[in-house]
Amino acid sequence: MISKRNSTRRWTKSCQNEKGEVFSKIINIPKVSCLGKSINFGWLDFKITNRCNNCCTYCGVEQDPPTAQEKIPIEAIIQTNKAAMELGFTFFAFLGGEPSLRQNWNAIFKPFTEKRNNCHLLVITNMKHFNEDLYRALFGSKAASAYLVASIDRLTMPNYKYQNSQQVLSDLWKIQDLTQAYSSDDHRNIQVHSVITRENFTEFPTLVEFFWKRHVSVSLAMVEPLKIVDGSPQYYNEFTKDELGHIIQHMRNLQQKNMLKFPNQILLEYLEQHQAGILQIKHCLAGKEHVIIESDGQVYPCLTESYRRGLSFGNIIHEEFNEIYGKLQGFTCRHPLTDTCWDHYLWNRLGEHVRRG
Ligand SMILES: C[S@@+](CC[C@H](N)C(=O)[O-])C[C@H]1O[C@@H](n2cnc3c(N)ncnc32)[C@H](O)[C@@H]1O
Ligand code: SF4
Ligand code: SF4
User: Fold this and answer.
1) How far is the CA of 59 from the centre of ligand 1 (A)?
2) Residue 4 confidence (pLDDT) above 70
3) Helix, strand, coil shares of the chain as percentages rounded to 5?
């Protein structure tokens, strides 16, 4: 549904909302891990649907309209979750496309519901479709933690996610109320994920503070691909060096107020090192500690490989996940110019953090 228009990172996307209306937009553009042995940090990014009901300005993910067929059968999702759990993966992020469009959540979470387990579940949603079955199945699982992560970049309209801010907040509090039936601790809750773009880079601290006061943690991410430009920034992902400096300063201010949770501290360190030009890839554990499953079932060692649609290591629709995971063990980074690779930095630091306990 995404077609390249010319060579300057301008793309057109055909999108469809839930009413079936089609609209098109122009956007600018360790201790790991032998097969069968337990790994102590494993992150699976699982794009469980190819369908989406939105058309966010900055999104480059391949997607089909809500009326399209699901590409990954439910059985393949269940088998993959089961196999990844057995291999020792502990973090499962379910995304897409828009995961709330998927049905049968009790089945999807079955492997995490049969007995108490040490898995951490995240479902990342654009909040456009209220899917109570999803929330109940998520919070009712026997996973160690289960969070519904709402993607919200801005509390006002217009915004790059085309969200009605009031509606989103009202639904979010309803979902938070639901958690009370499942747990008295904080391990069943809502979270917010916010992408820093040109639209919100001066105001994202207001959003973090807003949610912090309501005991909701916010994870921050820089829009990808991040571009630092000399002239006048034009596109959603372009910033001057000075603007990057302001973003860093905003994050330091949040840190001083203790409002920067751990993954955001990793982002701050990353941006500081990016600014200083001292980022370096050490030993990337892509394909070992983290694995990406695309919404057509193809398996990749990291996001860069999946975006570039590099060499897929297999497809969960036709193969067992543990066989594909075995093939991934021989993978080494094929992109010599990726010293600034954010995914590498994030997962390495998260892995260190989890291993340290
Ligand atoms: C691809 S979406 C899938 C889940 C769901 N549809 C949503 O929007 O939350 C997962 C997350 O990636 C973020 N995202 C999309 N495009 C991005 C980009 N170019 N850079 C950084 N994050 C991006 C979204 O805002 C969302 O938080
Ligand atoms: S809702 Fe999610 S998958 Fe859909 S366009 Fe937006 S970021 Fe992309
Ligand atoms: S350094 Fe980045 S691009 Fe290379 S394998 Fe690791 S995550 Fe992928």
Assistant:
1) 6
2) no
3) 35, 20, 50
Residues 6+ apart with CB under 8 A from 203: 154
Asked if residue 97 has its Cβ within 6 Å of ligand 2, the reply is yes
- Tell me the three state secondary structure of residue 267: helix
Q: Please write the tens of the pLDDT for every residue from 312-348.
A: 999 999 999 999 999 999 998 887 656 788 988 998 8
Query: What is the model's pLDDT at position 339?
Result: 73
Q: Residue 99: CA atoms inside 13 Å, Cβ hemisphere, count?
A: 26
Residue type, 90: T
pLDDT at 33 over 70: no
User: From the CB of 62, is ligand 1 less than 6 Å away?
Assistant: no
Task: Say what the alpha-carbon torsion angle 244, 246, 250, 256 is, to the nearest 10 degrees.
Answer: 100
Tell me if residue 147 falls in helix, strand or coil.
strand
Looking at per-residue pLDDT, the higher value among 27 and 337 belongs to 337
Cα 349 from chain centre: 16
**Cβ neighbours, 10 Å, residue 216:** 18
| Three-state SS at 166 | helix
pLDDT for 21? 55
Which residues sit opposite 227 in a β-bridge? 238
DSSP label of 101 = G
Tokens of 314: 């297999």
Q: What is the pTM of this model?
A: 0.90
Whether 126 is in the pocket of ligand 2, judged by its Cβ within 6 Å, is: yes
CB 236 within 8 A of CB 57: yes
**What is the token pair recorded at 346?**
């994030």
Report whether residue 49 contacts ligand 2, using a CB cutoff of 6 Å: no
Please tell me the least confidently modeled range out of 72-76, 114-118, 182-186, 350-354.
182-186
Place of tokens 């109320």: 177
Give the strand pairing for 10-16 and 2-4.
Answer: antiparallel
Of 260, 281, 277, which Cα lies nearest the Cα of 343?
A: 281
Count of beta carbons in the 10 Å neighbourhood of residue 19:
7
